[in-house]
Write a structure and sequence with these properties.
Pnp Oxidase, Chain A, seven-stranded antiparallel sheet, 7 strands, 161 residues, alpha+beta, 6 helices
Amino acid sequence: MAKGDRARRWYRGGRPGTIAKAFMRFWAFIARTGVARNRMMTLEVTGRKSGRTLPLPVMIIHSGGDRFIASMLGDDVAWVQNVRAAAGRAAICAGGREQVVLVEVPPADRPALLKEFLRVAPGARPHIPVDMNAPVSDFEAVAGQYPVFRVTPAAASSAAD
């Protein structure tokens, strides 16, 4: 069985199964410590149904001096819906806790970010149907299906309102 097949099986129907949830808890713990703070952080967002703070490990995309996160499973996943319901309010943890606002990037601006996402997030490669070595133009066809969010400090975002 190929590695990509195994990864897709862990996320049948676009939802994490038992093994994927265990890995997510492990990596959320590791990311929270700040060991790999330039690449991975724990995203904390309030669940729109449960009201609980839900931790999720995320890979950080750096581009143009900004930080971004992307959804490897597309648009219809809980954390994306929770971020939207919370008007982008969340926290990221990597050796400390930072209040942030996640601002959704328009699909037209996502292709280069998705390409970079596949470079820094090997676990996402089986889920996004474009080869990481493909030209940026190949990512245009799927950009609308994979949300990307700019990470902005909460204080800077509220000052801009």
